[in-house]
Amino acid sequence: xxxxxxxxxxxxxxxxxxxxxxxxxxxxxxxxxxxxxxxxxxxxxxxxxxxxxxxxxxxxxxxxxxxxxxxxxxxxxxxxxxxxxxxxxxxxxxxxxxxxxxxxxxxxxxxxxxxxxxxxxxxxxxxxxxxxxxxxxxxxxxxxxxxxxxxxxxxxxxxxxxxxxxxxxxxxxxxxxxxxxxxxxxxxxxxxxxxxxxxxxxxxxxxxxxxxxxxxxxxxxxxxxxxxxxxxxxxxxxxxxxxxxxxxxxxxxxxxxxxxxxxxxxxxxxxxxxxxxxxxxxxxxxxxxxxxxxxxxxxxxxxxxxxxxxxxxxxxxxxxxxxxxxxxxxxxxxxxxxxxxxxxxxxxxxxxxxxxxxxxxxxxxxxxxxxxxxxxxxxxxxxxxxxxxxxxxxxxxxxxxxxxxxxxxxxxxxxxxxxxxxxxxxxxxxxxxxxxxxxxx
Length: 441
Prior knowledge:
By secondary structure, the protein is of the alpha+beta class. It has helices spanning 5-16, 19-25, 86-98, 153-165, 187-203, 225-235, 286-303, 342-349, 360-369, 421-439; strands at residues 33-42, 58-63, 68-81, 101-103, 109-113, 126-138, 141-149, 178-183, 208-219, 240-245, 250-255, 258-263, 266-276, 313-314, 318-322, 325-335, 357-358, 381-385, 391-395, 399-403, 406-416. It has a 21-stranded mixed beta sheet that branches. A hairpin with a 2-residue loop joins strand 12 and strand 13 (266-276). Helix 1 (5-16) runs antiparallel to helix 4 (153-165), helix 3 (86-98) packs antiparallel against helix 8 (342-349) and helix 6 (225-235) crosses helix 10.
């Protein structure tokens, strides 16, 4: 496997002495952003060997089915927002920053937001982050993007070189065996919550509510994100494997569900719902079909105002494998209006009935009134956006929040009329299974 560290070091050293960059540094404003790109050549790895051992900021997104792997190290620029206008505020901040972005084509930014709009400890309501270094491999070819504020060029260059030098070995140390697993919401509490949800559905107008439960896994040694990410990639390469880490915690997981993508004016979104697992009810049963129908209806309706007239199309539903699980999925697509952006689409769609309920607004209000909790970014959005407003967002599912030797895992189930609490509980157990397996030695 290629080691690009010497090439990257030489490139950054050369850039430090580049006359054009020196001339830019002499121009106001000093907080102007610059992005430089370098073609690296053939690469068939997944970048995990470049992930620093010591906790630091990084982001990771991999879609093996599309031969796309991305690792971001360090931060060149960051913006966060809270409240109901969080994504609108980020869009304004991005537009202002784009005016002061110089050099080659601006790099993509990480975009993430949790289920609820309010900030949590160490988790803002929404965030845009530009890594100092993107390592990107698509179709077996690799490239690097280095970004920084002009006035911070030298310090950012040295920080990135240190991060590269601190990368893990190709075979990370194994994770310690989890010492215990503690349900945070036990079955009795779950049964009561399902009962209350069914009562609300019986009284109308709610048709579906998504409830989440959480477990905590503890280990004698800190969990190693590189090891867990590699195991998730080995388990299932059909969706997105993702991570966002800081010096305090790391949120990671794997998800089969695209919230929305915008590329060259084309919009695509997944209407994904219904779950089957080994020894479970069949995916074809009426409960799963109803769940997925609600999602299709809501996604198509949410996209329509942002699309050209009569351009929204719903593909026939298909079975979507996700490790040991299967879901129903219908792809919804449309041709965007000229002014439509990814952040507008995310605002219109989130939360879909796949993670909130149906009708979406009524379900959202019921969940808030019921005190529904979602840890970190679970069931929010995570993905990438470019300076022009294009990109792709996924729903952050099958996740864990790591902090030292503690991991908090969440999974949800859709409650509709006729749902059985025990069956829904077993569904959450099946969804938790892939992450639990990745935490084992």
